[in-house]
Amino acid sequence: MTANVSVGAHPLSLSSSSSSSARIGSALGRIAYVVLCAFVFDLPWGEYVPQLGGLVLGTWIGLLAVGVMALRTALTGRCRILSPLHYWMLSLAAWSALSIFWTLDWGSTVTRVGTYLQLLIVVWLIWELAVTEERVVGLLQAYVFGALGASIGTLYNFMAGHTAAQLASTIPGKVVWETYRYSFAYLNEDDLGLVVALSIPMVFYLLVSRKGLLVELLCWLQLGAGFCSILLSGSRGALLAVVSALMMYPLILSRLPRWQKYASPVACVGLLAGGAYLVPHSLWSRMFEFGYRELAAGTLTHRTVLWAAGLEAFRDHPFLGVGAGAYGPAILRAVDIPYPAHNSFISILVELGVIGALLVFALLASFFHCVKRMRYLERCLWMTLLMTWTVGVSSLTWEYRKPTWFLFGLLTAHVYSRRQENRAVAVSAPSRQTTLR
After folding, report:
1. Which site among 10, 22, 195, 428 is 20 to 30 Å from 262 CA-CA?
2. pLDDT in tens, 133-155
3. Terminal-residue alpha carbon distance, the chain
4. Model pTM greater than 0.90?
5. Rounded to 10 degrees, what is the CA torsion of 348, 349, 350, 353?
6. What are the tens digits of pLDDT across the range 23-41?
7. Where are the domains of the chain?
């Protein structure tokens, strides 16, 4: 009898322990998701605020999220199986790491590889935590609200008369160019423009999703503040990117609530009028010069010189490249300062060679293939975001920046969260029919 009691109690104990571990793991998952939302909220502006203990705020938040997730994984012993899209990202990071063996600048390559490792951890966090569409939308909201903070900060600096050059001049060794552009904190004006432009398709998606009155009001506020902040930044690349972002508006106009459908054209006219009134003449002149001078006979603020120097280096290292992060040292023969490429695609081609460029092409092609299979609204969102990103990074070196990999990770999570929900519906339908019988 004693033996029977002992045998019967053992499974109960295991079941109770397993149930307790599952509850604790679920609680840790919710905590980690909240921390990840804070990280995404900090993403548009957090890298440029004063440091805390030698690290920026976003790094501390990211470390906290990783710690909570590591604890949850150790407790539950469970991880999601990676998708094929993740393996393309891993391949790109692995090829960058291999370039250590032939790089022209070992220190820059090691630094870039470390950056890619951190970015892959962010992608993994999104994959593990954004398992449902609701959580994906929560991360979209967090990014939009973070971009709203950067937009309002830019408007505040404009009202206070603090130009981006004045803020940058407080950084030792910082080279200051235009003195009439505005930004938030120490955020580069061109980076600010693309950060905000990427939030515009997300705003339209959230408006159609009808996530509550407060969210709708904040989204409309970001449309106005974001548009004005892009103009105040004087970023011509961001202006082209936001044109791509606004392509989503006619695609979702019929799905907006009735009052928003009629009020949005009025709001657009008001934005144009407000922008024409607020934005200084010097910034409008800079915008118009882009069309009449820079594209026709200019250098796109010396970018064409950097691209020509990079392509010259590419001819010497066509297949393997000069090494991840080594674009600047590779063009020193043509320019005096090791500038970045200011074009993500040329940067990848020169640094990682034809093989690296093919990996990026395969990754982007896989993204577009997956997006084509999504529902209409999600397809509009991600097609517009990918186009906006493509236009924006054509004048910026963003292949190793957090917003880029946040988009890659969130798109992957969104694709497979939708598939998971569809699979759950397909499985539950026959069970309901069996019950009715």
Report:
1. 195
2. 999 999 999 999 999 999 999 99
3. 44
4. no
5. 110
6. 888 899 999 999 999 999 9
7. 15-79, 81-129+299-419, 132-279
